[in-house]
Amino acid sequence: MVYYLSQIGRYMTEVFIDQFDWWVALGLVAQFMFTMRFVVQWIASERAQRSVIPFAFWTFSLGGGSLLLVYAIYRKDPVFIAGQALSTFIYIRNLQFALRERRANRAVT
């Protein structure tokens, strides 16, 4: 058991301390932003007592997704690059829809 715990400790040290650089910091910030989109969506849905996708969800999606794309390009990860590149396009398109809806709602009121 002691052996396995020491191996886990070595692994954690290597992953979270030895490899830490500003790219890892960027990746962590990006992942935090990406995660916040779900927190924002969850809070908005709880308040409305129905499923809601607020504007901030798409803002966090675009911010986090774009930073994750930069990180994936730096790390040369083709799977991650492909997924984030397509997702970033979708986030931009959904922000366009959300902005159009906001403008239409302002014109009505």
From TrEMBL:
Pfam families recorded: LAB_N (PF07578)
GO molecular function annotations of the record: lipid-A-disaccharide synthase activity
Domain Lipid A biosynthesis N-terminal, residue spans: 26-97
GO annotation, biological process: lipid A biosynthetic process
Keyword Transmembrane helix carried by entry: yes
GO CC terms in record: membrane
Organism per entry: Xanthobacter flavus
InterPro entries: Lipid_A_biosynth_N (IPR011499), UCP028440_lipidA_biosyn (IPR014546)
Domain of life: Bacteria
Protein name as catalogued: Lipid-A-disaccharide synthase-like uncharacterized protein
